[in-house]
């Protein structure tokens, strides 16, 4: 197999991994989440939903 064919295979196998990139939280989101979790160790569903909407995140990301 030639060098260029090997390179093409590497690129194709890398492209096959179609996972979306991980979303990073902003410093502001981190600050808000930290302050909430310092006060309430296990926030309920309602608080997580409210926080998620406020921070433009999903409930799962807040969890």
From TrEMBL:
What keywords would UniProt list here? DNA-binding, Homeobox, Nucleus
> Main site of residence?
nucleus
List the Gene3D superfamilies hit by this protein, alphabetically: Homeodomain-like
| Gene Ontology, cellular component aspect | nucleus
Q: What PROSITE patterns does this protein's entry cite?
A: HOMEOBOX_2
Where is the Homeobox domain positioned along the sequence? Answer: 16-63
Going by the entry's taxonomy, the superkingdom of the source organism is recorded as: Eukaryota
List every stretch annotated Disordered.
1-27
Show the stretches that span the lipid bilayer. Answer: none
Q: Where does it localize?
A: Nucleus
InterPro entries per UniProt = HD (IPR001356), Homeodomain-like_sf (IPR009057)
> What is the official name of this protein in its record?
Homeobox domain-containing protein
Q: Which organism is it from?
A: Rhizopus azygosporus
